Amino acid sequence: MGSADSKLNFRKAVIQLTTKTQPVEATDDAFWDQFWADTATSVQDVFALVPAAEIRAVREESPSNLATLCYKAVEKLVQGAESGCHSEKERQIVLNCSRLLTRVLPYIFEDPDWRGFFWSTVPGAGRGGQAEDDDESARPLAESLLLAVADLLFCPDFTVQSHRRSTVDSAEDIHSLDSCEYIWEAGVGFAHSPQPNYIHDMNRMELLKLLLTCFSEAMYLPPAPDSSSINPWVQFFCSTENRHALPLFTSLLNTVCAYDPVGYGIPYNHLLFSDYREPLVEEAAQVLIVTLDHDSATSASPTVDGTTTGTAMDDADPPGPENLFVNYLSRIHREEDFQFILKGIARLLSNPLLQTYLPNSTKKIQFHQELLVLFWKLCDFNKKFLFFVLKSSDVLDILVPILYFLNDARADQSRVGLMHIGVFILLLLSGERNFGVRLNKPYSVRVPMDIPVFTGTHADLLIVVFHKIITSGHQRLQPLFDCLLTIVVNVSPYLKSLSMVAANKLLHLLEAFSTTWFLFSAAQNHHLVFFLLEVFNNIIQYQFDGNSNLVYAIIRKRSVFHQLANLPTDPPAIHKALQRRRRPPEPLSRAGSQEGASMEGSRPAAPAEPGTLKASLVATPGIDKLTEKSQVSEDGTLRSLDSAPQQSSAEDSPATEEPSQAWREQRRLSSASASGQWNPTSEWVLSWKSKLPLQTIMRLLQVLVPQVEKICIDKGLTDESEILRFLQHGTLVGLLPVPHPILIRKYQANSGTAMWFRTYMWGVIYLRNVDPPVWYDTDVKLFEIQRV
Q1: For residue 452, what is the enclosing H or E element?
Q2: Phi first, then psi: what are they for 362, rounded to 5°?
């Protein structure tokens, strides 16, 4: 039967379904089979032939028919899973039902009255109307559907290679089959890489798309502040009820991490061979991050130390979360497994950067946001993995792509979410001493980026990119400034030698943030100055030798520090500073930042194309909620300070009794500041001015400025190199105040970020699934879809 005929028949069935006002009996197989038995429709056909308006009409006008359609489609999947899908006809039925459910489910989820439907048992709806054995008929439809999909994902000759030697052997019994022997790809816990099979990959992909659609009920619930709402679909699928949980988790992880889009290392190879693996890898990455959506702040996560056992999962740890995917992820512990995961993620994240050397030489992947979420989950749930990442300079293979994405997206309103996750990952890494140490490695890779050319280390790269984001990103990035500077503070005690370019960038930021109009125009702006002073103090006290460039820059810009020390606090001066605010807000001035020429081959960061769709995001917690303060002891161990009182850190300043939500709002408005709600007082300025940690820098200037001036007069010098040489050999031993303890602000899990990740992840998945457009134009509640 031709495909044009089958489309016609399928369309006729859909029309009948929408026009029948009488319920159609579940036993009327002749009617229901039209939807899946004789048709060969692609998923795109199903989306075209079942319009949204008609699904909604059936839902409103003949609900029992929609219920029966869903029930019968699930029943067919269950039958396929039980029989093992040996015939081509059975496989076709399974795929057709899978596509139909993918089409219909979002419309079930968008209506609150229908939401419980899949979780109710269907009374007396056994095959042919007879009640079945109590056990199965009592299962909610959702559970039957999920278990059938899990079985079908390990179905020989359908989604995995058959292990039969010959056709004479009886078919592999799908119930006794050990799916751990059928893992899709070599990697964690599995050594054998099966022959690639295009048909199997396509079938897996369709079933994973259905699974993702089942999980997407989360999109139809508004963001809950406590984020405790457990997704019942994910909860059941990742529970011990699913006997394939371990092999499926492993298959998804290995499929993503083993993927090489380059095509066997031969440039331009992808132009010769179509890569059917990529759609499967994308789907696998999306399903994986959704199953790992788990609020680590509210659950006990397994501890770091456990003895190593022979298996891929570490059994010595206490039982982890109920969600088996999170549990397995947190228990991976073998070095070779960590190496495989890290190399895979780094390879894929670097892929868009390769494009810039040899344009179009490799296939450009689009799922870097899903990979960043996956990397975040790995570091958040598996501390051993985090330590492994930081143990060698491999972490830089993650850092460079993240800095590339941050720099590239800084002007694009539709990529605010990407900016946030990149910064969150760097904040998490910066809480570990090793990250700061690794940054000292010279940066020689020349990825064309729209930043000034410099010679230096990865620390210089990080500072130059952060400076670019702060001075030339768009307005909506302001809430990230605290995070960006916290990362610099965290790594600063370990930075052995900043380049002149990076040193000048840091001083330019101080100059911009310490103008009176900026300091007085919002309740928390002065925190940025505190962070920068902390950076300078850490480097002067702990890395003075080797940082003559920074010391020289501080001496050259000494007036900025003197102005801060003499900041006016009287009402007329405050009023005068704020008068500048009445004019249109100025972006941070770039004057004096000495922008060098950008790197060769780079393109400027572009704003979003008008009309680009973006998903809204919930607000992120303030830096005080995101991090907890720890003090580094003499022996390098960390002691949490959040219970103990601390002195003179930025957050201490009594920033008027405003809840943090209000000040974020306040800060957003303050630059436009027609609002005029924020009125700084003399008392307020004095309260934090007295805490500015200027002693170390003032002492440095007091000692070095006269010496530098003397050299200049004696030798008639205008030449920097001579002064730098003097500073390189200078010492301040015994002249500076006693070094302060190093303060690190470590990321701490909290429900605010858990909720942020949930909205961000689902927004990405919504926007990336356009063919077919699974959720497009349905009434999602978790976020809003907006046009830039």
Answers
A1: none
A2: -125, 165
